[in-house]
Design brief:
Helices cover 35% and strands 22% of the residues. By secondary structure, the chain is α/β, with parallel strands linked by helices. Helix 1 runs antiparallel to helix 4.
């Protein structure tokens, strides 16, 4: 990372610790190691995203991975979608304090943005099981069939894939996590419903 990144990620970490005192943004056990547990983990997605992409980060929460990607990749436009208004206020504070021009925070449900944005990439971390993520992503795939989904998963990843394949068809790259021994990044493309599944 550059000195610019170090400065702004330090500000991000300080804000996270301050806001954690009034709301539950991350598991308390991870506060001592924000850089590895959250920043480095989220940063794994950065090289998987095409240049200049529009990204929709579902259920952004404390900004992982969306805000991290917006800070690392100023070429991206990252829509951070968070229905909890307090968490959205935190994200806006981070964006303001870090001068992160590429981050756009939406305090709303994912479904309300289907006609407002057309992402090239959809991301999510610790939001919902894979079948639900496919449901949330499908309307955007209809707009952009080349859409790439990057979902960060833990030890249930393979079981979630099996569950999703009962209803969905997709091309899958299973990328082992570099920061969690039981984690993985699921890269999905060509997402469609299986024949006969509504």
């Amino acid at each position: 990372m550059t000195a610019f990144h170090v400065k702004h990620f330090a500000a991000y970490a300080a804000l996270l610790r301050r806001w954690q005192g009034v709301m539950n943004l991350v598991a308390p056990s991870t506060l001592a190691d924000i850089e590895a547990r959250h920043f480095a983990d989220s940063a794994q997605l950065a090289p998987l995203i095409p240049p200049g992409a529009v990204v929709a980060d579902l259920g952004s929460g404390a900004g992982f991975p969306g805000m991290v990607l917006a800070l690392l990749r100023p070429d991206l436009t990252v829509h951070l979608i968070e229905s909890d208004t307090k968490k959205a206020a935190f994200l806006k504070s981070v964006s303001r304090e870090t001068l992160c021009a590429g981050a756009q925070v939406h305090a709303c449900r994912v479904e309300s943005l289907y006609d407002a944005i057309t992402p090239d990439v959809v991301t999510a971390r610790a939001l919902a099981p894979l079948p639900k993520l496919c449901v949330l992503t499908e309307p955007w795939v209809r707009q952009n069939p080349a859409l790439i989904a990057l979902f960060m998963k833990g030890k249930t990843a393979r079981e979630e894939i099996r569950q999703a394949e009962t209803v969905w068809r997709f091309a899958l790259d299973f990328v082992p996590s570099a920061t969690a021994t039981d984690g993985a990044i699921l890269r999905l493309t060509r997402l469609t419903r299986a024949s006969g599944c509504m």
